[in-house]
Write a structure and sequence with these properties.
The complex is a heterodimer. Chain A is of the alpha/beta class. Chain A has 11 helices and 11 strands. Chain A is elongated and about 70 Å long. Chain B is of the alpha/beta class. Chain B is 35% helix and 29% strand. The chains are: A alpha/beta, B alpha/beta.
Chain lengths: 287, 278
């Protein structure tokens, strides 16, 4: 079984539209939305949820004020400033380490499981899908990404699917690293803007750091052809293949508004270019 | 006054708003807190004149004292320590530096060393006091770098914080304790969906907020309808314009080329100021 993750250092470059297009082309794939912070793939794929599982991220401290003797040891020991001087817990700051529980001389603090979100197994018109929702202001998105990927793997094994297509989160930190470790190929979607080029260099650095082969897609390549050329030069000198150049086209937004993938919605130039890119990627993955 | 600029989703124009707003104000400070992908300086070209490494404390086990009892690894909520019969393995990337292992060690075998995870940089551009942070490639935890940036907030200035995308830890760390939050969105289904998540975050944190619609005209009217229904003020609409997109692609702040936008951003700031004071 092969795994492909679509990422982009920067958000909003078209990752999810491209992932949805691949989903409609793949045929025998499991789809996984690993942008657990701001998952959007379901807006196009309209998953029919078959199974919902609670997700517990880190634990959270619970302070029993009746027992507390106001010694302030917890306040002094918390490295995350998650307990204030009046010994109130600041939920958003608690990282669940358990130091306060350990140090409390009167057992006024206990660590409790924290409901951080949900993981879902669904059916879509293009095949099974693994996705999740992190509750507002919750931590541990990297851990939830791992849950989504494990669920996708189980689905693929159970249903004899030979590919997992992963819609990745933006950035270069914890959730992205969880979304790309151990995959067979990373597709980095970028745009010909100076900020996207900067982000591209950083995200390719991350993929390289973890030894994962990467290819690049330049979306909206025609909004600034000089910058497109810069990206192509950069990729060439670093031995990275540009597998697709997609023109700017309003059909991408129109398709999104109609809850369809670009492939389903139109046979425009951009749709055909995505098909060509998909064929390239299949070759790279030997599927 | 501290104004943060956030959006559930990336790529909606946070950095565009943050830089153009900051450049339109007197006595301003801009802090780019998107330490995973800091972009503001592409538009500002501030000459960096100060750099500071940001490090975290990682346990160092004194193996002459350690008897491999395993209490440290049992305690560690992050699996950053593993004890095998005659060794203790430390996984620095997983460590949150909570200090628990040192507390529970019965033999005082846990010491600390500093590990660099990123850096913050300071510069000035057109009179604007500027900071950004850079998380090192391959590092997981953005929070220590964001915390270091937030210590640079100058309360006497008009502070603009450019937040990372998403709704989890790095965003909360950035947006928390700001006086007002601008949420930037696009008029598309993805934009609306992610805006709702961002609204949840700022409501959860009890921070007053308003919305700026970027690339107005590309999609549909659902974002506006949502804001009307939820009584969320729409502070500004920036049209989908080829000129603005092209300036963006070249890293040029559009207030520099389209000066009437400077006064619009100043008005926006005054409006926020009066709302915060009210």
């Amino acid at each position: 079984m092969k795994q492909l993750t679509v990422i982009s250092g920067k958000g909003g470059t078209g990752k999810t539209s491209i992932t949805a297009a691949f989903a409609s082309l793949a045929g025998n794939a499991v789809l996984a939305d690993c942008d657990v912070d701001a998952a959007d793939l379901h807006l196009i794929l309209k998953p029919d949820v078959k199974k919902t599982m609670g997700f517990h991220g880190l634990n959270i401290a619970h302070i029993d004020k009746d027992r507390c003797i106001d010694c302030k040891k917890c306040y002094e020991s918390c490295k995350f400033d998650a307990i204030d001087k009046e010994i109130n817990l600041i939920k958003e700051s608690c990282e669940g380490c358990g130091v306060c529980e350990y140090i409390c001389p009167v057992d006024a603090i206990t660590m409790k499981e924290r409901d951080s979100g949900f993981a879902y197994i669904s059916e879509t018109r293009f095949g099974p899908m693994s996705h999740a929702m992190l509750k507002t202001a919750e931590e541990a998105s990297g851990k939830l990404v791992t849950v989504v990927r494990n669920n996708a793997k189980t689905l693929a094994e159970e249903q004899g699917k030979d590919l997992i297509i992963i819609d990745g989160p933006p950035g270069i930190g914890c959730p992205v690293i969880s979304a790309i470790t151990g995959v067979d190929l990373v597709l980095v979607v970028t745009e010909p803007t100076l900020s996207a080029i900067h982000d591209l260099e950083r995200i390719l650095g991350v993929a390289n750091h973890f030894g994962i082969p990467s290819v690049v897609c330049i979306n909206k390549y025609d909004i600034n052809v000089d910058n497109t050329e810069k990206i192509e030069q950069y990729c060439k000198s670093n031995g990275i293949e540009v597998v697709g150049k997609l023109p700017y086209d309003t059909v991408v937004t129109d398709a999104m508004i109609r809850e369809k993938s670009v492939i389903e919605y139109s046979d425009s130039d951009v749709a055909n270019k995505i098909i060509d890119m998909w064929n390239e990627i299949q070759g790279r993955l030997h599927i | 006054m501290i104004i943060s600029v956030a959006s559930g989703k990336g790529g909606t124009g946070k950095t565009t708003i943050a830089t153009n707003l900051a450049l339109s104000l007197e006595k301003a400070q801009l802090i780019d807190c998107d330490v995973e992908e800091p972009n503001a300086n592409i538009f500002l070209n501030a000459k960096i004149n100060e750099r500071e490494d940001i490090s975290v404390s990682i346990p160092e086990i004194d193996k002459t004292k350690c008897n491999f009892c395993g209490k440290c690894s049992d305690f560690c909520a992050y699996n950053a320590l593993a004890v095998v019969p005659s060794d203790v393995l430390v996984f620095p990337e997983l460590c949150h530096s909570c200090g628990g292992c040192e507390l529970v060690c019965p033999l005082d075998a846990v010491g600390w060393h500093e590990r660099i995870v990123g850096r913050i940089e300071h510069g000035v551009a057109d009179g604007l006091d500027f900071y950004h942070g850079l998380l090192n490639i391959g590092e997981i935890q953005a929070i220590p770098v964001i915390k270091a940036l937030k210590r640079k907030v100058d309360g006497d200035k008009n502070v603009i914080l450019d937040a990372p995308p998403g709704t989890s830890c790095p965003v909360i760390e950035t947006v928390g304790s700001s006086d007002y939050c601008i949420l930037v969105t696009e008029p598309t289904p993805f934009g609306l969906h992610d805006l709702k998540l961002a609204v949840d975050v700022v409501r959860h944190l009890h921070i007053p907020f308003g919305v700026i619609i970027n690339r107005d005209g590309v999609g549909d009217k659902k974002v506006e309808l949502y804001c009307q229904n939820e009584k969320i003020p729409i502070l500004m609409k920036i049209p989908h314009s080829e000129k603005i997109a092209h300036l963006y692609s070249k890293g040029i702040p559009f207030v520099n080329e389209l000066p009437d936008w400077r006064s619009r951003f100043q008005n926006l700031f005054s409006r926020i100021q009066s709302e915060v004071k009210a």
